[in-house]
Amino acid sequence: MASFIPRKPEKEVISMRISTDILAEIDNKAAEIGISRNELINQCITFALANMEDSEKDN
How far apart are CA 25 and CA 13, in angstroms? Predict the structure, then answer.
């Protein structure tokens, strides 16, 4: 049987400014889904980066 080795992903604390309207929308959606604000923002950023068009292709 494979061994389970728990790991803590490396994360860094940052500060950012965001409009109050967007923050309210994020908070509402996170509560609706049942995850933290932080987790929702991380998932949104991950999705956006994975699906962003490569600017090199546009040149």
Answer: 22
> pLDDT tens across 2-14, in order?
898 888 888 899 9
Q: pTM for this structure? A: 0.74
Taking the C-alpha atoms of residue 22 and residue 1, their distance in angstroms, rounded to an integer, is: 46
In the chain, domain spans: 20-51
Q: Is there a contact between 33 and 40 (Cβ–Cβ < 8 Å)?
A: yes
- Spatial contact of 6 and 13, defined as CB atoms under 8 Å apart: no
Helices (H) and strands (E) in the chain, counts: 3, 0
The rounded distance, in Å, linking the Cα atoms of 42 and 36 is: 10
Across 32-50, b (16+ Cβ under 10 Å) vs e yields eeeeeeeebeeeeeeeeee
